[in-house]
Every structure is written in structure tokens, then in C-alpha cells.
Amino acid sequence: MRRGGCGINKKERSHRSAADGVVAIFGDTYLIGSGIVNAVHLTAVRTLNPRIHPDVIDLADIGVKNVYVPFAGHMNLGVGSGLANGINPNGFTVTGVNVQPGYYNSVEGQAADDVSWIKGSHQLGFGAYYSHSNFNANSNVAANPTFTFNGNRTSTIPGVPDGTGLALSDFLTGLPSGFSGGTKSFLAPRQTYFGAYVQDSWKANSHLTVNYGVRWEPFISPYDGKGRHNYFTTDLYTSGYKSTSYPLAPVGTVMSGDALAPKNGKYMFNHLAHFVPRLALAWDPKGDGMMVVRASYGMFADLPPMWTFYGNAAGAPWNGTTSLTNPTFSDPWNLPSSNYTTGYPGGNPLPSSFTKTTPFQLNGAYDNLRQNAKSTYIHQWNLSVQRQVGQNWLFAGNYLGNQDVHLWGPQIQLNYSVYMPGANTGNITQRKILSLLNPDQGKYYNGIGDLEDGGTGSYNAMLLTVQRRRANGLTIQGNYTFSHCIGDGVVSQPGSGGITPGMRAYNRSNCSGDRTHIVNLSTVVESPKFANNVLRVLGSGWQLSGILKLMSGTSFRVNSGVDTTFTGTTDGSAATGRANQVLADAFLTNKNKDGWLNINAFAVPTQATGICSAVTLSCGYGDSAQLRGPGLINLDLGLTRRFQVREGQSIEFRAEAFNAPNHVNPMNPSNTLNSQTFGKSVAAADPRIMQLALKYVF
């Protein structure tokens, strides 16, 4: 017996882009013999996703000289800092990032074959799955010229004036704290996946079922469709390593075609010996179906998203970005900056193209993917007990846990700045470790974000559930979760930034969506069928539903808002560097949306009061603990009824109220210490929203 089918589906949508996708699917199921079934599935997906944005204004329009403007009407200019829930209460942004024209297109093919074989008390399964993905993009984020005015411009270099200390004043006086410009980036990551498995579901006896198996999931390294690859280590730098395939490459960088590089443009080396087991048990103690105990354990391999490889081909040297500290607003390339007091050598280097004979850019920003990176895998386990009480009630208690191993993150800054007397944000470039080790070669490197593969994460939860199935017009479902999620974080789109080496534990934090307590309760109440004709017409058939959600708040840390480490690392920057917590209780007595945090509980760290790094020699790292923001209380209500018009025809009425009590659910407060809105929630979840609907069914 055979069953098969195929189809093509084309879908279009529009939201700041005009996406166009085509999907082709083929499936065939074949009965080989008694108890043996084979299923084949073939899938092809093609997606076209151009990014479209209206022209606004560019740097040439406002009089900035000698700047490469790749897209007329587009630029990125930010004044102020202290973002809270996507809002900048201290300044403004012109156009911003991710608004320049570009495209993100992909093609993927998949093939799977699965065999199921029932033999006695065993149900055997085995099969294989293959997929290949091509991603082609023209992002152009780095190409968009960017000025930043954050109020932290500091300079002791002659000819490079100091800032005013205020972002808006710096903007009005033409004193930016940073500038970056780059070339258009053409991305072409490719990824192949293959997996094979064998498993068995064994009915050991009337009380016990055992499911066990193993999968082979080799890590097949993604690669660049244009054969581009570069990799840097400090050991190679100090040993004087020079690329043989790109003779003009600076010391320390492995390039495509070198003996040390993976072949065929691969980002890293393959790891084929990946076997992951699975085991699960289901036990019915009495064999009456009223109670069951389940337990399971499994290992699962995980592939990085395609965006992980964006930066390697979008950054230096292939599509270079050059950053300047404390530049001159009117002419950033030709006039003084903290990097180049007589202007950038040769003037504006953009636009540019890169070949094997092209000189490498100065002060280049590099995204580093480790060639010997281990692939991520997950340990996952659970234990549950379910018990039916009476005819309508079901109770369950569950323990859920997982452990993530070899997460790709965090990102480490290899070219950090060493702290020394007189250090400030204006001389970060002069104190870069690579320049101190080798001034002649260090000039080619700015930030080098090294994506490490040693991150870990965990999630553990108790989940209690209760369910009353529909009876006598009443349905109830509820659950309570007590959980904790913590980890080093996953970097899905790396860049040239990174934390201080040796401070991964310092940066470890609760997951972004971690909530200790979550309660969900839903009910449906149906009005009875009245015997009285009038009551039956008016009152029968109504359904009142409600969904109640209660959640504790998510975690955040308080940032100082100023650079206190002067190391060029993300964990010491003005945007993300921590404040010191000087009081045990960081909250106001009557905390609310207008005041959640006590500003007196925090202070800006100094070299005398902060945490020290043995690598950067800076002691300006803050110690603020993780705090919890406001929780959430939400009640949604719905009222429905279907009116029968005649046979085969009806009208359905529906009234819904989301956040029916109109309860204010503030977001996390502004957490930047020098923000005018520090400690206040400047955004909230949706207010009450009501909608009415009529549907005619025929």
C-alpha cells in the first residue's frame, strides 16, 4: 500500500520588507510488509526577503565632508544613552541601524527517510535526515556611516579636544565620541546537516514501557560560499606567524588557503564522532491507567543559526569596518581623532575592495570564530507523576531539567586595552595589548571579538498542573512553575566586541526570560440548558472564558552609564559596565512604576572601589547584583454564543477583553545610573484592549 502527495505553496507578506517564499513538498508512505512502514519526505524552501526603508537624510546632507555615503538618505547618528525598553529618554537617534537597503535570501533542501517495524512487543525505528542551507545576504549594516555622541568623550591628546560631558552639548559643538564606516557586506554562509538514528519502543510488560535509542549527528562545519575565512590567536601573534596565501596579512591571522586553515572556506574543522543516546520509561504501578510515572534522559545536538557566521565575512578584512575614537564631526577621516592626530593615513579609505594583493586596513574590526570550536549539545531529563482522580480530574507533578554544554558564547575581547596611570576613553587605542606587544603590527587591529565555545547554561523547574475536563458546563486548567535559568549566554550574531578575558563567571547571569514563579489558570463556564423557553432563548448556550496569568519579574543589573575600566571591553563600557551596589537593599520602600530603585544604593565604581582584572589591570568593574523587575498580572475574558438561524446556518457572537481590569504592568525600570529616568519604568505592557465580532457560518 502506498500513499503519497506533493504540493507547492507561495506566500507573501509585507512588514518593512517584501518577502516572497516558495515551498515544495513531496511525501510517500509505503507498506513494505506486515508491520513495516517506510516514509519518505522531500522538501525545498526558497525565501526572498529584501529590506526596504524610506530615504530620510544622510551625512552629506548635513555638511559632513569626505565621508562615503553608500545609500543616499541613510545614516546612523545617535545622541545620548540610557536605553530602557527600546526608548532613549536622554537623546535621539536619526534613522538608526538595520534601516539601509539590503536583502536576505535563502534556499534549503531537506530529505528524510524513516522506517517503522513492529515485531512482537517491540516497535523498532530507524532512519536518516539530510539538509543543506544556502544563505545569501547583503546586510550593509557596517557600510552605513555611524556617529555616536554619548557624553563620555575624554581626551588628553593635543589637537583632540575634550568633550563637554553631556551628549547633546557634544552634538551641538561637533564633538562625537565615536565614528565608524565600512564597505557593503555580501554574506554567503552554507550549512549541511546529517543525522541517522535507531530506536526501540519495548512493551516490557503490562506495567512498563521502555523507549531507548541512539542518534549519530556529526558536526559538519558550515562554510563560506565565497571561500573566505580568517582566524586570529594571540599565540600566533606573539610567535610572528604570517599568512602564506595572503602575504600582506598582519601577523597572527590565519587566512583562507593557509596550511593551518580548514579547507574549502570552512569556518572550523569537522567533528564526526557525535553519538547521542536517549532513554525513557513509562510505568503504570497498578495497571489500571489511573496513575503513571514517567522518566527520561536524552542528549541533543544543536546547530548554530546561520547568522552566527555573519561577522566573519562581514568584518575585516573582507568587508572592513574602521572605527575612530573622538573624531572630528565635520571631516572624520582627514581631521584629528584620538587614533590619528593628523587624520587617517591617506584620507577616506572607502569604498574599497579586497583581494590577495590588497593592503590590509588599519584599525580593522575582526570577528573571530574558533577553528577548533566544539559543537553545542544539551543534556535533558525529566520526571513526572500523573494521577487521575475520579472521572474528571487529573493532577501532575513534573521536574524538568537541562544542561547546555559548549555554548558558543560569550565573546571575548582579544585586543583589550591595558590600564595604566592616565588611562581614559580617549587613549584606549594607544593602550591596546597588540600595539603594546608589537606596535608595527598592532596598528592593523582594533577590536577582535573571539567567540568562545566553552559557555554553559542550565534550566531546572518544578511544574505542577491540574486539569478538570468538561463536565456539567465547567472546564478548568491550571499550572504553576517554579524555575531558574542561568547561563553564559549565546552569541547568535557575533562582532568585534567582547568581554574581558578571564571574566566569564563575572558576566554569567540569569537568562533574559527567567521568571521564578509563573501561574496560569484558565476556565470555561457554560450556561445551562433551561427548560423555560424564554430562558433557553436568552440564557442558554453562552460560554464565559477567562485566562489569568501571574508572573514574577525578570532580571537586570544596574549600569554605571560611564566607562570606568577604560579597557575597550563590553563589560566595562559606558553602555553595559556595571555600577557598584553600596546598600544591601537596592529598592525603594514603596516601589512602583514611578520609582523602583533607590539611586543612593548605587555608585559609579572607581579604580579604588571596583573589582580588579588580572588581565587588563583595571579595577573599575562594578559589582551590582542581579535585581528583579516588576511582575505581571493579566486577566483576559471572553464571552461567546452561537445562534442557530436554520439548518446549516448560524451566527457566532464573540466579545473579548484583554487585560480586562486594565491593570498597569510596567516594564523593567531604566537601569543606567546617570539616566534622567533611572529607576523609573518608562514603558508598560498593553492596556485593556476590547474587541467584538460577529461571524456568519453557512
Describe the structure.
5% of the residues lie in helices and 43% in strands. The protein is mainly beta. Strand 17 and strand 18 form a beta hairpin. The chain is globular, with a radius of gyration of 30 Å. The model is unreliable at 8-17 and 82-86 (pLDDT under 50).
Write out key terms for the chains shown.
22-stranded antiparallel β-sheet; 38 strands; 698 residues; globular; single chain; five-stranded mixed β-sheet; mainly beta
Q: Portion of residues in helices?
A: under 10%
- Biggest β-sheet: count, sense, barrel? 22 strands, antiparallel
Question: Roughly what is the average pLDDT, rounded to an integer?
Answer: 90
Structural class: mainly beta
**Oligomerization state of this entry?**
single chain
Strand content: 35-45%
Computed Rg: 30 Å
The rounded distance between the terminal residues' Cα atoms is 37 Å
In DSSP terms (H or I, runs of 4 or more residues), the helix count works out at: 7
Based on DSSP secondary structure assignment, what is the total number of beta strands?
38
Shape: globular
Low-confidence stretches: 8-17, 82-86
